[in-house]
Design goal:
By secondary structure, the chain is α/β, with parallel strands linked by helices. The protein contains four helices and five strands, in the order βαβαβαβαβ. β2, α2 and β3 form a beta-alpha-beta unit.
Length: 120
C-alpha cells in the first residue's frame, strides 16, 4: 500500500506525482527491509521523474512511526503493516499496489500500473 502522512496535501497517486514534480527533491520516502531500497527508490523516482530523499529502516514499525510523526512523507508497505494506522486516520492511503482492491482495505483503489507498479 502507498501511504502518506495526513499533512501531505494529496489524495491520490496523480496528485502525489503532481506534488513531486512541483517540488522536486522535497518529498521523502521510507524504505523498509520488506522492499529493497533500490527497488522502492526506482519505483518512486521513475513514477515521479525526480529524485527524492530515501530513509531506509530495518523494519516496518520504525518507518510507519516516522511517517506518522512527519519525519518522512511517503511509504510503500504491506497492507497488514499499515492498515490499523490507516483506519485510525494516522496515515492517508493513496492506493494499493496491486491490480485489485485489497480485502483488508476495500475503499482504497488500486493504482494504474504505470503510476504505481506492483511492488507489494
Amino acid at each position: 500500500m502507498l501511504v502518506v502522512n495526513p499533512s501531505v496535501p494529496v489524495n491520490n497517486v496523480k496528485e502525489l506525482i503532481a506534488l513531486a514534480k512541483a517540488q522536486p527533491g522535497k518529498l521523502t520516502y521510507a524504505s523498509t527491509g520488506t522492499a529493497p531500497p533500490t527497488r522502492v527508490r526506482r519505483v518512486f523516482q521513475d513514477a515521479h521523474r525526480h529524485r527524492h530523499a530515501a530513509h531506509t529502516y530495518k523494519g516496518s514499525a520504525p518507518a510507519v512511526t516516522d511517517v506518522i510523526g512527519g519525519q518522512v512523507n511517503v511509504l510503500f508497505d504491506n497492507v497488514p503493516n499499515v492498515i490499523q494506522q490507516v483506519k485510525a486516520g494516522k496515515l492517508k492511503p493513496l492506493a494499493v499496489t496491486s491490480t485489485k482492491r485489497s480485502f483488508q482495505a476495500p475503499d482504497v483503489r488500486p493504482c494504474r500500473k504505470r503510476a504505481c507498479p506492483n511492488t507489494k
